[in-house]
């Protein structure tokens, strides 16, 4: 029986002796923790979310994407680390340490590296988070009293998520050690590589995922729908990229090898043969580089585009300098509002160059899949996925606002769809079958 203190001493000694490998590993892990913590902390900042809910949606997507990428990235760098350690573990095994003892030693090493990575990443996130926050406010021109707060929930979620990732990595390392015999452990990184098999199913999945992800990005035109589909497109592209690098590249190189007129040439023969083995070793690394490069390019281009087109967005969404909204008023009160507007413009020495006024009736309905009709929404049922928001204005107000002279027959309405196509529809269509008089 080995003294429990010996495991701790061995773990610390091993980390010191392998510091050239473990320091980059801990730094890379801490960087992943830091990035996730900063994003999650920004997402949980209530004052920031209240002033820009689309931003909150994007941050939540960024959270999920970063977490998925961190899992793949950390497993990838761990594979290099454990490959270098196999020879050392094999020597311990031959000298008399059982795999159970080695497992305890690896567990303590994992605890030390996990604690260092999570604490280091969260501390770095706290220090750099304020800088990222200020840059974000500057880009969005969001002034006022928006406080930067360290969310305890973010610290907790970051610790839980990355703690779970490191536990999975430890279990993976333990399984690798259990399945290896002492001779295989001693050979470690010197073991010869077998020729990779062609994985056609993974290749096809990669092509379909990549095509699906880019198709969603290109086909989706509606901004609100794009927000919801953005996350799906990103996940599909990530899966497709990894699958094509890991399986598609091998399949393509083997196709070149089977093409005798191409393969049996001096330059092609050695290049293709070597690439098949190198792609097996470096596929995940190349996929990581590809995804990271894409993320940087997308983030930079999107930020520059949004920042450069900010004035155009404001002019499009708010074509008038002022907007006054009132509810539940009568004609007399409308006249009083008009007087207030005139007095205010006169007092501020301004002239009203363009003014529009229209009456709006708004209520939320639920589309009934069985009856193909719109029913009134029950109170508190705002999370219903079939919710439809109906906004109605009188035809006279529409003509005045749009400068048109549209005429409608009885029981006929003018519909404006989200796809920006205006069409005349009779009220006896399936969606508008029910009639209700609204006073």
UniProtKB/TrEMBL annotation:
PANTHER family per UniProt: ABC TRANSPORTER PERMEASE, ABC TRANSPORTER PERMEASE-RELATED-RELATED
Localization: Cell membrane
Membrane topology reported for the UniProt record: Multi-pass membrane protein
Domain of life: Bacteria
Membrane-spanning ranges: 21-39, 59-77, 106-136, 148-175, 200-219, 231-253, 285-310
Main location: membrane
Protein name per the record: ABC transporter permease
Lineage: Bacteria, Bacillati, Bacillota, Clostridia, Lachnospirales
Taxonomic source organism: Anaerobutyricum hallii
InterPro entries: ABC-4_Integral_Memb_Prot, ABC3_permease_C
Keyword terms: Cell membrane, Membrane, Transmembrane, Transmembrane helix
Stretches for region Disordered: 420-439
One GO location term (cellular component): plasma membrane
Residue stretches making up the ABC3 transporter permease C-terminal domain: 65-177
